[in-house]
Amino acid sequence: MESIAALQAAVTAAVPFDGEPSDAELDAIETEMPAILADVDLLDAQIMTIDRTPTELDERRIRRARRRVLAARRALANTAAGEVA
């Protein structure tokens, strides 16, 4: 059996990891935040209906949340496409 200690240098990064996200990672999170929040809203709407039959209001809430997710993802894709061009 081979020890992984011998492979540690090849597996770990050469730059020490301080546990904090870089500025670029924080900027990416900030850019994606509307899509993340829309996903959270959709999950909240779906979780509310897990243990019961969805009412018409629940179905509308889920539909609206899905539309917000799609709109946020579309806006994010359009923003990313605009940066590339």
Structure description:
There is one protein chain. The model has no long low-confidence stretch (mean pLDDT 87). The radius of gyration is 21 Å and the shape is elongated. The N and C termini lie far apart (51 Å). With 85 residues, the chain is mostly helical. The protein has one domain. Helix content is 69%, strand content 0%.
Any chance you could write out the topology, listing elements then pairs?
Layout: H1 8-11, H2 23-48, H3 56-84
Short description:
With 85 residues, this protein is mainly α. It has helices spanning 8-11, 23-48, 56-84.
Sketch the major β-sheet.
none
H-E string: HHH
Please, what is the average pLDDT?
87
Number of structural domains = 1
Question: What would the principal axes of the Cα set say about the shape?
Answer: elongated
Query: Portion of residues in helices?
Result: 55-70%
What would you call the structural class? Answer: mainly alpha
Distance between the termini: 51 Å
Strand content: under 5%
Low-confidence stretches: none
Helical element count?
3
> How large is the radius of gyration?
21 Å
Could you tell me the number of beta strands?
Answer: 0
